[in-house]
Amino acid sequence: MPVYNLKVNGQSHTVEADQDTPLLWVLRDHLDMVGTKFGCGIGQCGACTIHVDGSATRSCLLQVSMVEDMEITTIEGLSDDASHPVQQAWKEVDVPQCGYCQAGQMMSAAAFLSQNSNPNKSEIRDAMSGNICRCASYNRIEKAVEVAASKLS
Fold first, then answer.
1. Which residue from 46, 87, 95, 121 has the least number of CB within 10 angstroms?
2. Residue limits of the 2Fe-2S ferredoxin-type domain (predicted)?
3. What are phi and psi of 72, to 5 degrees?
4. Does domain 85-152 have CATH number 3.40.50.2300?
5. Residues 6+ apart with CB under 8 A from 122
6. Cα–Cα separations (whole angstroms), residue 115 to 5, 105, 128
7. Residue spans of beta strands (DSSP E) within the chain
8. pLDDT tens digit string along 51-94?
């Protein structure tokens, strides 16, 4: 079985996995980083969103063989102490209901705000539209992105 060298949350990891294993399962099953959630397995829901070289990416669609030598950030690596502005905003606004999608929501928001730290409501809605929340917390998610943006500016 092939061996891959991954850089996840600033740390190097060596994993043995089939080349077509989705990165989602490597993160969860091999590296015990279970904050990244399985939702649909086809890249439609956003629950498995992580950052790869700073871009929001669906980890269920990436094969482990595709990400060697790339910077991978999971929700566990967004900050060590929940001090990232997105994490602070999520707590302040009390966004989650069930919480299942929230790691993916926060990772999408963080990547978006790194590109646009002063978005309007329409831009926020467009940026977050790829993440599904079964509890329909969309208004609170949008508010939290606004709060996080204000913390960044």
1. 121
2. 2-78
3. -110, 130
4. no
5. none
6. 28, 16, 13
7. 3-8, 11-16, 49-52, 55-58, 71-73
8. 999 999 999 999 999 999 999 999 999 999 999 999 999 999 99
- The amino acid at 3: V
Find out whether 12 and 3 touch, Cβ atoms under 8 Å: no
The proportion of the chain whose per-residue pLDDT surpasses 70, expressed as a percent, equals: 100
What are the boundaries of each domain within the chain?
3-76, 85-152
3-state DSSP assignment of residue 62: coil
User: What type of residue sits at position 58?
Assistant: R
**What SS3 state is found at 135?**
coil
Q: Does pTM top 0.90 for this prediction?
A: yes
